Amino acid sequence: VLAWQTGYAAAVNFASGFPRYSPGEYHASRLLEQSEVDLCILTGGKPLAGLSVKAIESLRRNPSIQIGPALISEFEPDVFLPTGIAGIHFPGSMYRYDGTPLPLRGFLPTVQNSEADVLKQINKSL
Question: Are 55 and 29 a contacting pair, CB within 8 Å?
């Protein structure tokens, strides 16, 4: 979604009210390593992927919220907000090995929200 809305896949800062891209300055590992983080919200299938060991150590010292269908085995957040699974509980998409996206309809009912719905609810309450 970040790339779709901003044109950038990562390292985007919205503090000024508009997207600013700077991979050296806004990369999650650098922000964590330099203690420039107040709170971490972890989403997605592998939220620790791409983080350095030092960044993960810093992450353990910061308040954190994980939003997703299952806890990350190598990290325990302060708050865990469980969700359903895209493509199983509600519509989603997957990609074939050749990069072709395939839409998924969702086939099991759930009482849990999607990650997107949880983030919308958090944003609405701010």
Answer: yes
Integer Cα distance of 80 and 90 in angstroms: 20
The answer to whether the beta carbons of residues 59 and 51 sit under 8 Å apart is yes
Name the E strands within the chain. Answer: 12-13, 20-21, 40-42, 64-68, 79-82, 92-95, 101-104
How many Cβ atoms are within 10 Å of 32's Cβ, its own excluded?
22
Please state the pTM of the whole predicted model. 0.82
Q: What range defines the domain where residue 120 resides? A: 38-125
Q: Is residue 83 part of a domain?
A: yes
Query: What is the structure's pLDDT at 64?
Result: 96
Q: Give the CATH number, domain containing residue 69.
A: 3.40.50.740
Which residues of the chain fall short of a pLDDT of 50?
A: none
Q: Hey, which residues does 103 pair with through a beta bridge? A: 93
Q: pLDDT tens-digit profile of 62-77?
A: 999 999 999 988 889 9
